ATP synthase subunit a
Amino acid sequence: MTAHKSLVIRVYFTLALAILPLFTFAQEHNEEQTSVEEASEEFNATEMIMHHIGDSHEWHFFGADESSVTLPLPVILYTDNGLVTFMSSEFHHDATGNTVVEKDGMRFVNLHEDIYRLNAGAEAVEFDAEHHPVNASKPWDLSITKNVAAMFLTVILMILFFSVGLARHHKKNEHAPKGFNNVLETLVLFVRDEIAIPQIGQKKYMKFMPFLLTVFFFIWITNLMGLLPGAANVTGNIAVTVSLGLFTMLIMIFNGNKDFYKHTFWMPGIPTWVKPILAIVEGLGLLIKPAALMIRLFANITAGHIIILSLIGLIFILENAGIAGVSVPFALFITVLELLVAFLQAFIFTILSALFIGMAVEEHEHH
């Protein structure tokens, strides 16, 4: 599926590059070159893309500067003097380090969404030749960032959907649910019948259903929310996918039976001199399996957002309204494709987690 998606994207990019001259044919070469150079100076596509897919200490919806619509979030810092809290609005939408916030006798700046504490007597951030702060240090940042707030929102939605909606229905009624509850129940049965039972087995699947359902719906809902304008890119954050992968690894390790570890570190039926070599390889496999999970999810979601933003950015880079006739339909096509990817990545992460757990709890027959 990934290779097919990559091929489709390459074909559309090739077509786009072939059509671009039709929109700029009437312009003189010198004027076009000057326009492109000026647009490149005024509009930084890389900065725009990284800003939209990155995390931040405030939730920006739309607009710019003072006219922007932004939700301030709590900034929580742990320093040598204890906890310091304030709202991100005190930075006044400034991420360049020019706005200094004074709290409890300490001075803080927001430098590209990294908060630094200025040294005593410092009035502003000073940088070395590599543009690293030399008169400031980073405290422990425990802030409720945009991604954290989006995860809280996802958890609230899941509680409302299942505890308040679907579970309450089954307590009061015996017949099948209708409407949205019917959709939720269909997906729950899908995870049970198509993922958990085939990969883990009829005897032991129920023990791991809460984890599999939580992971599936958490990833799917956050992926869908990430496609909304101004939304957070939760699963495109490597810290989130690392955490999800670690949960799978810990469940696999702590639930692995003696047969699993015997076949991992001292495989039966293999020459003794080969066993130590294979034990190292299989031991690394315990780390590589969850690493593959987190990288796949992170890379696919991040790539989709970058492609969409790059297509829209072409309009401003080339300063030609005609480009919108090509880039906007392509961006819409990729967005629709991302709806499929949102579900597909949740399914792949869940089914591979179930597969790894099933390998750990599988009962081997001994002859």
